[in-house]
UniProtKB/TrEMBL annotation:
Gene3D superfamilies: SCP2 sterol-binding domain (3.30.1050.10). PANTHER family: SCP2 STEROL-BINDING DOMAIN-CONTAINING PROTEIN 1, STEROL CARRIER PROTEIN 2 SCP-2 FAMILY PROTEIN. InterPro entries: SCP2_sterol-bd_dom, SCP2_sterol-bd_dom_sf. It comes from the Bacteria. This is SCP2 domain-containing protein. One of its GO terms (cellular component) is cytosol. Residues 3-98 form the SCP2 domain. It holds the Pfam family SCP2.
Length: 98
């Protein structure tokens, strides 16, 4: 997950204005929580239950998603990405990462 964390850290400035807490749940591989409620988004180790939106995705697919090699809508449609919580936050996150 360390390589994914580095990639996510590079994308954090793009998430200014998201005004939400988002979690990427990779099951047994772990999870990443992004708190974008403040002026500067940050990665936290908070409990996922506090997230406005939880994106359940396998680690390999998350790597592809962050690298821009997997379209979020296609991943959702194909069942590679499951969303729990706010669909609006998920859509906003998707548009901010493009």
């Amino acid at each position: 997950m360390e390589d994914i964390l580095e990639s996510v850290k590079q994308k954090l400035p793009q998430l200014r204005g998201l005004n939400a807490v988002v979690a990427f749940d990779c099951g047994e591989d772990g999870h990443i929580v992004i708190d974008a409620t403040g002026p500067e988004p940050e990665i936290s180790d908070d409990d996922m239950s506090d997230a406005d939106c939880i994106l359940k995705i396998k680690k390999a697919n998350l790597e592809k998603l962050i690298a821009g090699k997997l379209d979020p809508m296609l991943a959702f449609t194909m069942g590679k990405l499951k969303i729990k919580g706010s669909m609006g936050v998920a859509a906003k996150l998707s548009s901010m990462l493009d």
